[in-house]
Amino acid sequence: MEAWSYSSLSTFKQCPKKYYHLKVKKDVKDKGSEATIYGNKLHKAAENFIKNNEPLPPEFSFMRGTMDTLSKIKGDVHCEIRFGITKEDGEYGPTKFFGSDVWWRGIADLLIINGDKGYLVDYKSSKSAKYADTKQLDLLAAAAFTHFPQLKTIKSALAFVVANDIVTKEHKAELRKSYFATFDPELERLQVALDEDVWNAVSGPLCAYCPVTKCPHWRERK
Questions:
Q1: Which backbone phi and psi does 153 adopt, to 5 degrees?
Q2: CB atoms within 10 A of CB 118
Q3: Closest among 219, 189, 169, 161 to 38, alpha carbons compared
């Protein structure tokens, strides 16, 4: 199985057929939506504010309070840090993002390291934190523990900057393996689909936004 990410596994869970066309056959490209483009601009503005001390563009001025708070955290700052993880015989190790042995890839929007303590933030441009999934934070924290073994604890957060809400979680280094292992059942289902070459389409509210138009569930956006 090729290296996976939180987003690629989420795509498989949403619809195996969509995953097949985007990640396996690769005959369809996801050009992104207006929301995706907006989210990318928001992330870049946040990165420039923290990394380069650039003022926030007027359209993102609503993030100022959150960004000011984050900028005051002491430590070594890493923006948009890329993690690669290997897995062999149940052991996880660090590797390059595009390493030949990479098992999982992920990018942390912000990681601040102060001694044996870490602070990890993932920005969200969603209008609500109602369906926040902190398992994403588990993965990023596990990767940070793997790449920076001096870390003992990490305080992580999903920062819903548009909704002005934040979902927090605390992680411990001794639980690193369990954070990765949480995804084993989903990865096993993905491996079965790969082995048997079965990719069933799933109908849902996002079908109208799907780039896989040759599907019985696809419909034009109203």
A1: -140, 150
A2: 26
A3: 161
Q: Where are the domains of the chain?
A: 1-28+183-222, 73-178
Go through the chain and tell me how many residues it has. 222
CB 118 within 8 A of CB 148: yes
The side-by-side arrangement of strands in the sheet containing 117-124 is 91-95, 76-88, 104-114, 117-124, 153-160, 165-172
SS3 content of the chain, % helix, strand, coil (to 5): 40, 25, 35
Per-residue pLDDT, averaged over 91-96, amounts to 97
Burial of 47 (0-12, 13-18, 19+ CB in 10 A): middle
Position 117 pLDDT exceeds 80: yes
Q: Residue 44: what are its φ and ψ, rounded to 5°?
A: -65, -40
Look at residue 219 in the predicted model and tell me its pLDDT. 80
* Helix spans in the chain (H): 6-14, 16-19, 34-52, 64-71, 135-147, 176-181, 184-196
Q: Is the predicted pLDDT of residue 166 greater than 70, yes or no?
A: yes
